[in-house]
Each structure stands twice: as structure tokens, then as C-alpha cells.
Amino acid sequence: MSFQSAVPRIDSPRLLVIDDDDLVRRNICGFLRDSGFSIIEAANGAVGVSLFNSEKPDLVLCDLRMPDVDGLDVIRNVANKNSNTPVIVISGLGEIDDVVQALRLGASDYLIKPIKDLAVLEHSVRNGLKQAELISENEQYSSQLEDTNMQLRQSLDLLRVDQQAGRLVQTRLLPVTPFRSDHFECRHKIVPSLYLSGDFVDYWRTENGRLIFYIADVSGHGASSAFVTVLLMYLAKDIVRRLQRKNGGLTASAVLMRLNKELSRANLQKHVTAFIGILDPDSNSLQYAAAGHYPMPIVGDGANFNYLECRSLPIGIKEETVYEECQIQLGNDFTINLFSDGVLELINLPDLEAKESRLLDIVKQANGRFDGVSKGMELSAVADAPDDVALLTVAVAGNR
User: Which of 10, 193, 375, 400 is the most buried (most CB within 10 A)?
Assistant: First the structure.
């Protein structure tokens, strides 16, 4: 026997609940419906597999021990469909060996019955849905990265000889602005001194929900520097993807060290100053590392604004440079403003200390918000700048 929720909400995640115990199944389904989910029910594994294939639910919740087609068979069917659909298994206390096998087959979580606290069930379901969403976004990113790599190969020659085509390539490779996730918002503006820029910014969300962002300034100007920004973008995302595969391998300093080795070995006769940050929404902490970047980013929480500290050599000078890993705890309403050194050329004051102080005042007066900082720097009116100018603002979502 199987039936669907009579009036499912159009935007509700669709859950397939498979259990041969009618009472247990109905209790679970009733609770999840009340929690806002759209429910598909199956009273045995065979019907559950059929419904999975036809209905393509967002998540499967199934009992491990069922006659004929059990929970392990359900997981195998999901895996055979090459689906990222999360499967949560429900087991008895004496079925730990089966639970281990289920997790090895790809189950995202398990619950021990009887489930006394149904809030734990809802938490597990929402966790599974969130992970599935992040995996889907990561696959889309990988597909986009493949497209970008193809564009990179097709466009490098144009970048060297055709300034207009090069500008188009570089602009298309910049991230979308504004970019918003559940927790963070990023906005940027780049004003090149020539048709092409040696400044570059990028940001993206990783599979586990962290936000990676960086600002880079390639020495020199024009096509040769712009070429390095394109190479940098490709290398940074590839390095992050590789480091993510290692447990605990993804740190800001590790990314800089890999970038430094790659660019040093390429012998491009260019050096790059850079700052990279990794934001963790769960702990509201910032891991970061700098490679000769100046001025350092300004972090604020609505009341206090300060320059971060963490200095080292630029990328591309010494292959074995070690970069310091720094970490700070952020406030609940933080902003991070990053600049390239060209911004200091826009401040008409006699020395660097005075320029830094004025830049800090501009950020304070704008409360760290992108529009106010951009207006305070008069970036929309900049013409014939002596150096490339870049501004990147990272903030709590909704803090604009």
C-alpha cells in the first residue's frame, strides 16, 4: 500500500518514507507533514524503490529491516541511479552491523528506533537536505569550472593580442556581484587603470557551506598582468578543490603556499600580492592568510573597525615561502572590506600612515557597507587612475 500527501506544498521538499510498520510510518509521516514537508509513503521496500524511481523525491527515509527488499537494497537502488538523494536509515539497537554497511553504501545518516524525540528526526532530515543542496551546487560549480577552463584555453591567445577581447574574458571570469548565500553577501568593484586590470577578486561557497574569498593584485598593468589574473582564478579553485579532499587540508595558508609554488614554477616574471579568507558560518570565525597584501582588510562589527594583521612575502618570489595561518572570531553583524593598493593613490594625503587612517575613517563612516565605502572613495567617478583599484566587501547576509 502507498499513498501521497493529499495537498503537498509546491515548494516543500518531498520526502519518501519507507517502513513496513504502519504505526511507525504514520507517526513519522504525520510529524514531518506538520513540519512543512511533502510526504510520499511506502509500506514496503519494493513499493519504495518503485516510488523513488518514478517520483524522484528530495530525500528517502527508510527502515533497515523489511521483508524482501530491505533498506540496504533501497540504498543500492539510489546509488545505481547515480543520485545524490540523501538516504536516512532507521534501525533497531541490534542492527549496528547493518547500519555500518548502510553508511558505507552511501546513507547520509541513521536513527535508532524507537525515535523518542522527533525533533532529532527533523534535524537529521534538514541536515540531509542541506548537504544534498550543497553537493548539487558543487556539481554545478564543477560544470561551470569545466566550461571556464575551456573558455580559458580558447581565450588566452586573444587576451595577449586583443585588448578588447581580453577585457571581455576578464570581466566574464569575475564573480557575480552581489552574491548572496544563506549567511554571507559579497560585492565588488574593480576600476582598471588601463583597459585590462591586474586586480582580481573571487568568492564562492564550498560544499560544506564555508565561504572562500580573495583579492589579488598582479604586478604591472595591461595584458600581461591580466593574463596572470586569469591563471590565478583557475589555479585557486583547482587548489581549493584538491585540498577539500583531504580531511582538514583546506586552510587559507595552504592555498597560498600551493599558489606560490605553481606561479613560481611558471616563471612568469610577475609577483602577486593577495589576501585569502575562509568564513565558517557555524562558528562565525575567519581563517585568513596574506601574501604581501597592502593595505590589509578592515574588519568591523558596527562599532569597532580595525585593520587585520598578517604579513608575508608576495606570491611568485620564493617557491618555499611559508605563509602564516591567522584566525579571528567575528561579531554577529560583521563586515570585511578588502582593497588593492591602488585605492591609496586616490587619497590625496602626504604619507602612507595618513592615507591608511583616512581609509579607516571612510569605512567607519560607511559602517563598513559596500555602497557607503564605494561612495566615500568616489569610485564611480574615478577616471585615469594611476593604478588599478579594487574593492571587495564581505558581510553578513542583509548587511548592505
Answer: 193
Buried b (16+ CB within 10 A) or exposed e, 73-89: bbbebbeeeebbbbbbb
Return left, alpha or beta for 263; rule: phi > 0 is left, psi -120 to 50 is alpha, else beta. alpha
Report the relative pairing of strands 305-307 and 272-280 from DSSP bridges. unpaired
CATH architecture of 2-131: 3-Layer(aba) Sandwich (3.40)
Query: Global pTM?
Result: 0.61
What pLDDT is recorded for position 1?
Answer: 40
90 forms bridges with which residues in the sheet? 63, 111
Q: Give the Cα separation of 228 and 198 in Å (integer).
A: 8
Q: Which pLDDT belongs to residue 182?
A: 82
If one compares 245 and 74, the residue with the highest pLDDT of the two is 74
Lowest mean pLDDT, pick from 149-158, 231-240, 243-252: 149-158
- Integer Cα distance of 51 and 57 in angstroms: 8
Backbone dihedral angles phi then psi of residue 335, each to the nearest 5 degrees: -135, 145
Residue 249 identity (one-letter amino acid): G
| Alpha helical stretches, state H, 307-391 | 352-365, 370-376
pLDDT at 311 over 80: no
Q: Where are the beta strands (DSSP E) in 281-378?
A: 285-291, 298-300, 305-307, 326-329, 335-339
pLDDT band at 132 (very low <50, low <70, confident <90, very high): confident
Q: What is the CATH number of domain 164-396?
A: 3.60.40.10
Domain locations in the chain?
A: 2-131, 164-396
Contact indicator for 106, 78 with CB cutoff of 8 Å: yes
Kindly give the pairing relationship between strand 87-91 and strand 59-63.
parallel
What average pLDDT does range 114-142 have in this prediction? Answer: 85
pLDDT-derived band at 222 (thresholds 50, 70, 90) equals low
Q: Are 253 and 313 in contact (CB under 8 A)?
A: no
Supply the DSSP symbol for 345.
G
CA pseudo-torsion sign 81, 87, 92, 95: positive
Q: What are phi and psi of 67, to 5 degrees?
A: -65, 150
Q: Does position 75 have pLDDT exceeding 80, yes or no?
A: yes
**Helix pair angle (22-34, 118-161), 10° resolution:** 60
Work out the mean pLDDT of the chain and round it to a whole number.
Answer: 85
